[in-house]
Amino acid sequence: MGSRKRYPLRIARTAHGIRAQGLRTLTHSAWWARRWVASLETMRLGARMGRGRQYAIAGQVTELVSEGSHVEACVTGSRPDPYKVSLDFTSVPEGSSAEAALRAEPMLVARLLADDLPTDVEELLRADGVPLFPKAAPVGTNAEGKPVYDVKMHCTCPDWARPCKHLVAVLLLLGEEIARHPAALLALRGIDMEDLVPEGPGASADPGAALVSFDAAAAAGAGDAAPLVRRLGAVPYWRGAVRCQEALSRIYSRVRPVAIDAAAGRSIDLRSGTYGGIRNG
Question: What are the sequence ranges of the domains in the chain?
């Protein structure tokens, strides 16, 4: 029996990029987040899934730009220069029947704006021959008879497998954003929410009608240190070592009593000692 080929151990360089915050909860969140992860698992990733997950958590993705169906990213690996990653998703054709059907269904658009994804949307895209979630198998063949894939993936790393761990890290970060805002999934398919919302007189409504007085807001959250912070959820593309929600909660709990006193017109002296947990000096 021949000996197995051994590869040198490579350790990724430390990076301070975008850190994944909720990968462990993706499989327990909304149905579209679960489907996103399931679609990645059909790609026979093996150990690359775990390595990509660690890259996403460690902040190895230092840049991530998504413009419609095109995504570009930089991922720090074991080499001095970061790897360049790109993904191109199949987008709906011009004059898409799916886009026209969405415009004709205001309730579907309203649910998308409220960060909900109706299952009907997947059927609408399928009618255009475009999958909503990435597909591992070829979706057809080109003029030369070669397979055509739903997502074109490229990475400058030497790994021949696609997706490699660098691409997996980017796909998982995209999954976190999609979990929070499913409209991002439509954007990857070339459907912009701005094109679905009709412009009208109601678009310029008085912003003052949406304001809530400070006293009422303080009273509503009197027993809660950071109610608004928790409503934010996991902030996408966060670069801090501590979870964004936890860091903001600490700041909010310290600043809140000072803000209440300031709103009530009470005097505030921050020249010495501590005030509401805020230390000076």
Answer: 23-196, 212-279
Tell which residue, 213, 253, 208, 254, has the closest CA to residue 230. 253
Contact 168, 39 (CB under 8 A): no
| Residue for token pair 């230092």 | 62
Residue indicated by tokens 């805002």: 181
CB 165 within 8 Å of CB 51: yes
pTM: 0.68
| Three-class SS state of 167 | helix
* pLDDT tens, per residue, the chain with 281 residues: 455 555 555 777 777 788 888 777 777 778 999 999 999 999 888 899 999 999 999 999 999 999 999 999 999 998 889 999 999 999 999 888 999 999 999 889 999 988 999 999 999 999 999 999 998 877 777 788 887 789 999 999 998 888 999 999 999 999 999 998 999 999 999 999 988 886 654 443 333 333 333 334 444 444 444 555 555 555 666 666 666 666 666 676 666 666 666 666 676 666 544 444 444 44
Q: Which residues pair with 73 in a beta bridge?
A: 64, 85
Question: Which pairing describes strands 61-67 and 140-141: parallel, antiparallel, or unpaired?
Answer: unpaired
Q: How far apart are CA 50 and CA 169, in angstroms?
A: 9
